[in-house]
Design brief:
Elements: H1 2-25, E1 33-34, E2 41-43, H2 44-47, E3 52-53, E4 77-79, H3 80-94, E5 98-104, H4 109-120, H5 128-131, E6 157-164, E7 169-170, E8 190-191, E9 196-197, H6 212-227, E10 230-233, E11 236-242, E12 251-252
Parallel strand pairs: 1-12, 3-5
Antiparallel strand pairs: 2-4, 5-6, 6-7, 6-11, 8-9, 10-11
Helix pairs in contact: 3-6
Length: about 260
């Protein structure tokens, strides 16, 4: 009887350990939020030492106008698979005289929830002049600028731009990160599949436009990302997700902080 009891306790301990590991790794959890920091997440600066970080949601210069929940430190995390591909992108653009500048990478679900609460507060339009001057805040949900789920929370999505090493300035993309409007679409004023600029700005509600050079700059970033396994988003020129992301159905909740 004593040996049966010892074996039962041992079996339960092993089972509990296994369950805890699954929760932390996000394995087979569908869309269940996962609290633990998975071992496969890395600091982007460890994988790509020459990237520049400007983590907008750690500061106040973003469309909310406040630090976003879950951003405890101004660092950027990605799954190791995404970070490896990003290193290849970095090597590619460095040969052209650029560095990568990161605005956001892994985003905890609590940060997404913060966005949702902000969008529901129609009266809070403090940052409207900077990020959505042509839109009424009430349409942000309907037009899917704000959503209850984000690919960033799966850990293999990154928002970024190019930094010109010769001028020591960001490359002019003809629009700011997190601009809510058709001007942010990769096909604004051109065809991203062919890289051809056509100047068609008819989608802009305020008649805004970008130049051929600005469109070309967006294509330099896009082409480099696609060459190394990332897929674009049709509404944001700065947003890319690893095509073969390791956690396509898992939304993590751990905060952004140094690993």
């Amino acid at each position: 009887m004593r040996y049966k009891l010892i074996f039962s306790v041992f079996f339960l301990a092993v089972l509990a350990t296994g369950c805890k590991k699954d929760r932390n790794q996000g394995a087979d959890n569908g869309e269940t939020p996962v609290a633990g920091v998975d071992a496969s997440f890395v600091n982007i600066t460890d994988a790509v030492p020459d990237v520049i970080l400007e983590i907008r949601y750690y500061g106040t210069y973003n469309f909310v106008g406040a630090r976003i929940d879950g951003y405890l430190q101004p660092v950027a995390l990605l799954t190791s698979e995404a970070a490896d591909s990003l290193r290849a992108v970095s090597d590619d653009v460095k040969a052209m005289g650029y560095r990568l500048k990161i605005y956001d990478a892994y985003r905890p679900q609590m940060g997404v929830d913060h966005f949702v609460r902000w969008a529901a507060d129609i009266a809070d339009t403090m940052m409207k002049p900077y990020f959505y001057p042509d839109l009424d805040k009430s349409v942000l949900f309907d037009q899917e600028y704000i959503m209850a789920k984000s690919g960033h929370t799966r850990g293999s999505t990154v928002d970024l731009t190019l930094f010109d090493m010769a001028t020591e300035k960001e490359v002019d993309m003809g629009g700011t990160f997190d601009w809510f409007g058709p001007e942010s679409h990769p096909d604004f004023c051109g065809n991203p599949e062919t890289g051809e600029y056509n100047g068609d700005n008819s989608a802009s509600p305020a008649g805004r436009s970008i130049t051929a050079e600005q469109f070309h700059n967006r294509m330099i970033l896009r082409d480099a990302m696609l060459r190394h396994g990332f897929k674009p988003l049709d509404s944001e020129w700065w947003h890319f997700t690893l095509a073969n992301e390791p956690y396509p159905d898992t939304y993590f909740t751990f905060p952004v902080q140094q690993k």
